[in-house]
Every structure is written in C-alpha cells, then in structure tokens.
Amino acid sequence: MANAHSAAPAGREFNPWPAVIFIVLVCLAVLFLAPTAGVLLSSVKTTREIALGDLWSFPTRLYLGNFIEVLNKPAVHQYLINTLMVTVPATAASIALGVLAGYVFAKLPFRGSEALFLVIVAGMFFPPQVILIPLYRLFNAVGLIDTLYPVILIHIAMGMPICTLLMRNFFATVPNALREAAILEGASEWQVLTRVALPLSLPALAVLATLQFTWIWNDFLWPLIFTQSDEKRTIMLGIVNLKGQYSVAWGIQGALSLVASLPTLIVFLFFQRYFIKGMTMGAVKG
Amino acid sequence: MERETGVWRLVFLALPLGVFTVLVIWPLASSFYYSFTNWNGFSDNFEFVGFSNFNKLWTDKLFFNAAVNTAIWMVAAVLIPTLLGLGLALLIDSRIPGGPVFKSIFYFPICLSAVVVGQIWIWIYQPDWGLLNVAIGAVTGSSPDFAWLAKPDTALGSVIAAWAWQHTGLAMVIYLAGLTSIPEDLLEVCEIEGASTWQRLRVVIIPLLTPATVVVVALNVINSLKGFEILYIMTGGGPFNSSDTLAMHMYNESFKKYLMGYGSAISVVLFIVALTIIGIYFRELKKVDEIYG
After folding, report:
1. Which of A39, A140, B2, B58 is deepest in the core (most CB within 10 A)?
2. Do A101 and B219 count as a contact with CB atoms less than 8 A apart?
3. B31 to chain A nearest CA, in Å?
C-alpha cells in the first residue's frame, strides 16, 4: 500500500483510515462482481452440476460444451447478423444526422434555432412508450413490420437528440475564425464541415460511436415491437427466446449472455474513457 | 453570402429534421389523437370516443396500482444509485491505491444490456441455488428457498436492487468528475481549521457537488422513467401486477389486449409526467448555472 513507508514517525498518529477504506472498497468490489461471476461460472458448468446446487463454487474443470453448442446454433448466427445489421447503420446514420444538425446549431444559428435545438434535445428525455402505437401503425401500413428497417430507422431518430447535442457543443469549441478563413479562401460550407470541423471533432465522434453502438446493440424494446419471426430477431430477443426453449439449460443461457455481451464489453474495455465522457458531457449542459 | 448560408442551413437540416418529424414529433402528436379513439391495432375502422379512455383511467384499479408502483420505482431508482454512487465516489477519491480499477469494476455493469442484467439477477434470486438464498443460508445455517421474484411483497424491490446495481456506477463517475473540480486549498483550509470529516463533507464537499447532483438526479429520473425492459424481463409486471409500472401497463393494454386507444391514453399520461419532470429539471439547471456559473 501507498502508506507502507509511513512507519509513523514518533509524535504523529498512525492513520488507519486509508486501510479501512481500502478494505471496504475491496469488499464492495467483490459484492459488485459476484452477480457477473455467476454467469461466468454457469457458462463453464454442465446443467447437472448447476442443478445439484453447485453454481457458485469454483469449477474443478472447464466445461466448454455450452459455448460450443451456442456458437454452433444457426439461430444464434442469425441473431448476431441481425443485430450487426441494425447496430452499424443506425450508429453511423444517427451520428451523421447529429453532425449535420449540430453544425447548423453551432455555426449557422438563425432566428428560432435555439428553440428548435431544445425541441430536438427534449426528445432524449421521453420514454419510448409515448410514440410506440403510432409508429406501430405507420410501419404496419407500409408493410415493414417484421423487417429490420423500422428498428434501424427508429434508432436513427431516437439517437439523433444526443448526437445533435454533443456535436453542437463540440462544434461550438471550434473557433469561428477557422470557418471564416476557410470561407474567405473560397471553401463551401460543406467543405468547412468535412475538411475543417470534422477532423477536429474525432474525440466527439468516438464518444458518440461508443455510446450509440452500446445502446443500440443492447436494445430490447424496438425489436420486440417491430419484429415477430425468429429469423428477424436480434440477439437480446434471442436470449429471451432461447430461455423459453431451454428452460433449465442454465449453462447455455449463461454462455449465450456472455457471447451477446462480448461486443459491448470489448467496446467498454477499450473506450471506457469516451464512455464516461459521453455520459457526463451529454448531461451537463442543456 | 447570407443567402448562400440560408441554402446551406436548409441542406444540412433537411434530413435530420425530416427524420425527427416523421419518427418522433408526428407519432407524439398522433398519440394524443389515438387516445381519443377506440382503435384496436388492426382494423381501419375506429371511432372517436371522446374522453372515455381518460375516464376509464380513474376507474382502472390496475392503472392506479401501476401509478403507485411507478412512484415507488422512481423514488427508489433515483435515490439508491445516487446515494451509493456518492458514497463510492467519496471512498475512491480519498487517494486509495487501485482507484482506477475500483472505478472500472463499479462502472462496468452500465455496458450490459437490460436482458443480460435481468438474466444475471434472476439467477441471484433463483429459489433453489440462487446466490441470495445460498448466502442467507450460509449466514443463518438454514436452507431457505424463498422465491424473491415470485412473491408480490419482494418482486418490485428485487428488480430495484438489480437496477441499482447497474446504475450506481454512472452516478459514481459523475460525482468523481465533480469532486475533481473542488479546489484543493478549500480542503486544506478545512484541515488547518480542524474541521472533522463529517463537517468537511456537510459544509464544503456536498454543497459544492450540487451541479453534479443535479446531473445525477436528472439522469436517474430519465433512465428510471424509461425503465421498462428490466421489469419486462425479470417479472413481466407480476406477480399479481405487484411490479406493474405505467410503461408496463401501457405495453400490456396496447400489445397484449390490443386496446391501442386506451394504451395511447396511458402514454399521454406518461408524456405529461415526463414533461413535468423535464420542466422542473431545466428550471433547476438554470438556477444551478446562475449560482455556480
């Protein structure tokens, strides 16, 4: 520990607090990790072992059958492909729309643009249930129910507010003089955006990419409403589906949960910095 | 020049505003419209029924039950992660070795989906081999088989615990960011003046964390209002509607019973609740901005 050298010079009291706090934090950390440990442990055990009440003990041998079974299921492949087909375009498109709108609100304000901006940002706060029924009717009318399109479209629209907010705040920090200089050189507004403003805003784009990817990948509600057949379901619905099929195959459920969480876990591990930034940036200034 | 700028504004805003209008603004307005009809979700023939959907809210015992549960859910889902997050942030901020590691451990559940978090906690509460019963058994020496999620008394509380587990880290990182902005010399003055830890906390640190608290509370309110998925997965609103919330009730009435008109009326109520909370939030945010710059 950091205080190991402070063999308490005479006269100064020994301070026990750092040690106490450290121990408290270790206990809390163990408590916090315990739930996740359950999934990890179950995924490497057989159903028999778990049913015998042996879920929470350390595995004596590594059983990989659950992972092999999950990864060999064609349905799981389909779920993962569907999820990617929703997540990647919706992430990219919502950021693109946020860049366009954010640029106007930051650099080309007009009368009423502040109010318009607030209306868009307010979209971030509403529970999605508020727009569920009309959207269901809309997509039903155009025959898109049970396809991935409504899920992609709605994620673009629902992601736009946070993307617009962050991009506007970021573009506001790009000096106006840069834009004016470029315009005087004969650059168009589009060139200012793509050649000047965007290259400077890579950190903001990284923040949005991590946030949007995680949220869309993890989403459950929209695919629940807009898709019906198993071939169109995303991975999160797939977990719930398989739960019905293998009601007591806890090991398989654990393995599948882990496989489904891997992409967002990887994003989290490598881009944690951006994650935290996005969560705090998005909320601080309205 | 000015005219050219106007054209660019239009070009840049056309697509974002178009998408937002069609997929957010228009459906929002339509929800109000459908709340005055008896649409069943399939048929093109439906009638205007005036305020009868809203009148039904007053007599619907399940609606009242869901409203009470939503209030309980929101208060708990805001208070618990906020207080735990503040506590963790203060502990981690006290120059402890391994701070970043602790931070990651407490924060990582935020990247898991509601489905996976629900799954994890269903196992914790599993009657036969769930961690909670195993732990209680280990302490008391008995072997309890209490079904936490299947009992009306404990279902909602059990889901709240799972929710708090996932959202504490978010409050913690925002508080940690807030703590770094507290001037070092202010804390030194405390030490010189001989203030106790509690005094320092109560008089200096917590008041200076007000902007962070506003953000944490607002985020938790927003998230908890949207907290539908984890309830859907862990309890489905049951048993006996004991964990039914407004969002859950709206889903059941609309997509299980196909009473889309009535479901729209519930969503209008939900919208008004959200709007009120957002209004309060923006007003408070302004106050905080004025005081703390």
Report:
1. A39
2. no
3. 6
Local confidence band at A13 (pLDDT 50, 70, 90 cut-offs) = low
Domain ranges, ordered by start, for chain A: 67-284
Indicate whether B95 pLDDT > 80: no
B chain contacts of residue A284, beta-carbon cutoff 8 Å: 211, 215
The nearest CA of chain A is from the CA of B153 a distance in Å of: 22
pLDDT tens digits for range B158-199 = 999 999 999 998 899 889 888 888 888 888 888 888 888 888
What ipTM was assigned to the predicted interfaces of this complex?
0.87
Chain B touched by A92 (CB under 8 Å): no
Distance from CA of A163 to the nearest CA of B (A): 11
According to CATH, the superfamily of the domain at B61-249 is MetI-like (1.10.3720.10)
Judge: B116–A122 Cβ closer than 8 Å, yes or no: no
Q: Does domain A67-284 have CATH number 3.40.190.80?
A: no
Give residues with Cβ within 8 angstroms of B2, minimum separation 6.
Answer: none
Domain ranges of chain B: 61-249
- Closest alpha carbon within chain A to B274: A126
What is d(CA A171, CA A197) in angstroms, rounded to the nearest whole number? 7
**Are A104 and B13 in contact (CB < 8 Å)?**
yes
Mean pLDDT, rounded, for B96-115: 87
**Closest partner CB to A257 (pick from B119, B215, B232):** B119
A226 close to A150: Cβ distance less than 8 angstroms:
yes
**Which pair of tokens denotes residue A166?**
């962050």
For the CA atoms of B55, B59, B62, B66, the dihedral, rounded to the nearest 10 degrees, stands at 60
CA angle A170, A176, A181 (to 5 degrees): 130
- Residue (of A158, A179, A201) closest to A109 by Cα position: A179
Residue A247: what pLDDT?
Answer: 65
